Amino acid sequence: MSRNSLRTFAAGILLATSILAGLYFFQDKEEIPPVVTDEDVKEYLSTRDDIVLIEKEEYEELVQFKEKANEKPVEEEQVQESVEEKVITKYTLEIQSGMNSLEIARLLESVGIITDATQLNNYILEQNLAGKIQIGSYQLTSDMTPQQIADIITK
């Protein structure tokens, strides 16, 4: 930097600082109320249409009602899970020439043999089994793990 540009830069900083200081010290400052009272809060909340004011006892009753309502679906979910666990899907997989591991995994996911196609595909790729997939028909069930499925289709 040359001497003149350095002086100009310094003068600009000095001018900007002076303007900001003048605004800070001579600007009217709004006073913030020191304490917000309960009445102020109630008045504010009563003007809002999306907020409802209720008493503490009523709130506690609603919370208990919500907890009771949430307990019932959990029991139903557990019953449904136990029923779903007993259902085993059988499928005959036909691997044709040109099918890759992702296509096979998505097909098995669509018929309900596996729940996550990416999990099977990632296992096949991580174990370097993609090139070992054999063309043919394979009997698979939904209780098999991705590892078991990969072992069967790569024999």
From TrEMBL:
Alphabetical list of Gene3D superfamilies matching this protein: Endolytic murein transglycosylase
| UniProt name for this protein | YceG-like family protein
- Give the species this sequence originates from: Litchfieldia salsa
